[in-house]
C-alpha cells in the first residue's frame, strides 16, 4: 500500500500523550505507522507524556511556558505553523479537542493542508465543533472528519458539519496488553472495577457508588475499585463514607498501567452519561473481563452484545444498573458465558485491522 520508493511523512497532533483515550489512540497509531515504514512526527500542545509512542516529538507545551497568555498563544501558533510547513508532511491526523473557534479557524486556514483528518472521540460534539452549525461549517464543511463510532458519525452527518465524514474505531494492541496484564500483582481481592477521570461527572462515579451501595455486593464483601484522579475525588470519597461503604470503595488514583486491575476484576462497570468509543470496554475485554455498561451515547452498543460478552443496561436507569451488577454475581452460568466471549469480540478492533483502515482512508495521499 505504501510506495517503497518514498518515505511518507505523517504528523500526529494531540493535546498531550497521557491520561486519555484519544491520547492513547494517538500513541498506538504512531507505533503502527512507523512499523509500516512511515516517518512519524508527533506534536502535542500540553507538556505531558506517559504513553509509549514512536517517532519524533515536537512539544509546544515547553515553548514560553512563563509568558503571558497572549504571547504564549502567538508564539506557539507560529511554531506549529513552522512545524507543519518545514516538515512537508503528507498527512496530518488531529486528535485534539477543538473548543476554540478562533484558534481552530486559524489552524485550519493557515497551518493545516487539505490532507488533514480531524478525529472526533466524544459524543459531546461541542468538544470538537462550535455550538452553532454555521460556524462549524465555516471551518469543517470541506474537511475530512473521522468519527470513532457509527453513532457519532451519524450525528455529525445529520448536523451537516462536513461533506466527508468517515468512521474508524479505536484500536487495541492485544499482544502488548497480554504482557501488561501481569506486569505486577494487585493486592486487592474480590472486586469490580471502574476507570476514568474525576475532573467532571461524566463518568458519574457519584451515582455509581450509590448504586453499588444498594446492591448485593457490599454484603458479599465485593469491593468497588476506582482508578482515576481529579478534583471530584474528595466528593466521591465523602459519598462512600456517608453511605457506610468507605471501607469497600477503594480509590487507587491514576494508575499508569491499569491492565493488572482489569485482569483481576470480577467485571468492569461503565456508568457514563456519554462516551465516544469506550477504551475502558476494549481494555477490559482484552484481558478477558466482562462489563456491565449503560447503553449510552455513544459506543457501548457497538462493542457489548447483551448477555454475550457483558450486560448492556437501559441508558441512565441506575435501578437496572444495580440489578445487572446483582445478576452477574448471582448467575455464574451467565457470567462465565460472557467472560469466555470477551476476547473474541475484539478481532475487528485489533491494531492491524484499524491501522489498515487508516491507510486505506488516505491511500490516495500516500500511494
Provide a descriptive summary of the structure in words.
The chain is 37% helix and 16% strand. With 367 residues, it is an alpha/beta fold. The strands form three sheets. It has a seven-stranded parallel beta sheet with strand order 3-2-1-4-5-6-7, with helices on both faces. Helix 3 (101-110) packs parallel to helix 4 (133-140), helix 7 (205-214) packs parallel to helix 8 and helix 7 (205-214) crosses helix 11 (318-330). The longest helix is centred in the N-terminal third of the chain and has 19 residues, at 69-87. The chain is globular and about 60 Å long.
Structural class: alpha/beta
Q: Report the biggest beta sheet as strand number plus sense, adding barrel if it closes.
A: 7 strands, parallel
Could you tell me the strand content as a percent range? 15-25%
- Tell me how many strands there are: 13
Silhouette: globular
Q: Going across the major beta sheet, what is the strand order? A: 3-2-1-4-5-6-7
Taking all Cα atoms into account, the compactness measure Rg is 21 Å
Poorly predicted runs are none
Helical residue percent band: 25-40%
- Overall pLDDT score: 95
Order of helices and strands: EHEEHEHEHEHEHEHEHEHEHEEHHH
Count of helical segments? 13
Distance between the termini: 7 Å
Query: What's the oligomerization state?
Result: single chain
